[in-house]
Specification:
Blueprint lengths: L1 H17 L7 H10 L4 H15 L16 E2 L4 E2 H4 L19 H5 L3
Antiparallel strand pairs: 1-2
Length: 109
């Protein structure tokens, strides 16, 4: 019975780690994007992406893919685009994409 108790405790701790982060209202995402000058047609697509990619979790981090990469933040941007030195990179560090401050995330160069 002790191994089951240990297993359940570890499982609960892992669940707490996975669900860590702020769940943001989709209207807030849209409003911030509009205030930053994005068109409504673009905003609706990014809000949809955030809904299905992260569930609007600002701290979302995907499980490791077979190639060892991960997805980061509200929009789940893969680390091949945010790693330093990536040819296709956006110029941001992956940790910049995992933030409760969505204005900061949306202003990443």
């Amino acid at each position: 019975m002790v191994p089951l108790t240990v297993f359940l405790t570890v499982l609960l701790c892992l669940q707490a780690t996975i669900s860590y982060g702020k769940i943001i209202n989709p209207c807030v995402v849209a409003e911030v994007m509009q205030n930053l000058g994005q068109k409504k047609t673009v905003i609706s697509k990014w809000v949809c992406l955030a809904k299905f990619a992260s569930g609007f979790n600002t701290q979302a981090l995907s499980k490791s893919y077979p190639d060892g990469s991960h997805d980061f933040g509200l929009f789940q941007i893969n680390d091949k685009y945010c790693r330093l030195g990536s040819a296709d990179g956006c110029g941001a560090s992956c940790t910049d994409l995992v933030s409760d401050d969505i204005v900061k995330v949306l202003n990443v160069p």
